[in-house]
Amino acid sequence: MKRKIGFKTLGCRLNQFETDALASRFTRMGYEVVDNSKDTDVFVVNTCTVTNQSDQKSRYVVNHALTHGHIGMLIITGCMANHHKDQLEQRYPNAYVVDNQQKSAIPQLVEAHFKKEIVPSNQSQGGVFSYAPAAETFHTRSMVKIQDGCDNFCTFCIIPKVRGRAVSRPPQAILENIKQVLDYGYKEVVITGVNISRYNYEGLSFSALLRQILAIDRDFRLRISSIEPDSFDDDFFELMKHPKLMPHLHLCLQSASESILLKMRRMYTYKLYKTMVEKLRKLNPLFNITTDLIVGFPGETEDDFQASLKAVGDLQLGHVHTFKYSKREDTRAARMSDTMPEPLKTQRSELVRAAALKAKIAYRRQFIGIKQTVLIDTLNAVYAKGYSEYYIPVKIKQSVPKNTLLKVHIYGLETEGNDPCLLGEISA
Asked: Which of 279, 232, 278, 272 is nearest to 256 (CA)?
């Protein structure tokens, strides 16, 4: 009988990529792979620690699995495993706590466990780029890791501590990885990392890498994962015209206040960010810009907050992921005074969410009457659902196989909930 392994992933696309690669590896090893903890021989929790809430969610998943999952071997990995390794080992003495640097060696760890040849997890031979291309994943699009770690040291961020210093993957390995997943049948590739705009391998820049990827002589769509707006060159904007490169960027802002950006130690100004958006919209007026905003950073005044609130509408943002500032030990911001009361943070985050929803609806209404190319990733008894080239969800009231690219005429917008969905019908 096959052993059963379950996964739960929290946090960023980089974690999702690493889970997909691990799950695919276990499939090839003969395991039955599921996305829950029920009656599993092995359960892997790939944690996030970017905020206190992330820590709480990660602990909840672990506790729920132990209470309700009936699992055998428990593995806790990801950024929380780096940040709170000792605490996790004390709290969950029967679990294996595996840091990010050794995450890719989890299959060897599991096999050694069942052969009763166990060694400490930190002695396993891992590596941040030691992931094979994933043939079968939890997603329709394939993620490919190009970079890990970060050297920016923003004052609020724990990521350099838990992911390490910036390191870039050799370009040949990236190109081979992409060709392999295209051979597996994927039609869309997402390049991901911690700070991918700072990719630099022996002088090869991010833009130069993009050019090599786009030159692959295959029919596919390319997406860029979350990216920092601090090191774009003219070549990057030229490449954004390429038909393979999808017209959407999750361009991290965090605040539209120049003084708060300085306190955060961000590597750009709001003026520069706005100029980047204007350049992208000059290339394509419908270009989708999504972002992250932090509210309640120490010292944030009403004027600072209003600047961010105004930017949501001014920039016609397609989506805003809003965070209430969360104090992280071992960061510079943790030592800052002039902290904000939690109720005021909550009030401000609700105002941003309301403004963001209004902006999202206004942005998506522009697509009514336009044809879009949709990659189907969800099916149920009522509709098929997927994402357009602009990374907007589209529903079609027809049964269509997953991983199908369709020309769709957009005729309406479903505005219920927080993620308004375009409504479409297959074009003749």
From this structure: 272
Q: Do 326 and 421 belong to one domain?
A: no
353 within 8 A of 322, measured Cβ to Cβ: yes
Q: Are residues 376 and 356 in the same domain?
A: no
Residue appearing with tokens 């090599």: 212
In this structure, are 356 and 375 located in the same domain?
no
C-alpha 254, offset from chain centre: 16
| Secondary structure of residue 292 in the 3-state scheme | strand
* Dihedral sign for Cα atoms in the order 32, 38, 43, 44: positive
68's tokens: 């309700």
Average pLDDT over residues 68-91: 87
Maximum C-alpha span of the chain: 63
Q: Which of 68, 88, 123 is the last residue of a domain?
A: 123
Lookup result for tokens 């039955």: 32
Single pTM value for the model: 0.83
Mean pLDDT of the chain: 90
pLDDT at 125 over 80: no
In the chain, how many domains are there? Answer: 3
Report the DSSP beta bridge partners of residue 190: 143, 223
Closest CA to 103 of 136, 118, 81: 81
Rounded Cα gap, residues 309 and 399, in angstroms: 40
Determine the structural domain holding residue 9 and report its residue range. 4-123
Q: Are residues 252 and 286 in the same domain?
A: yes
| Residue 105: strand pairing partners | none
What amino acid is encoded at 287 in this protein? F
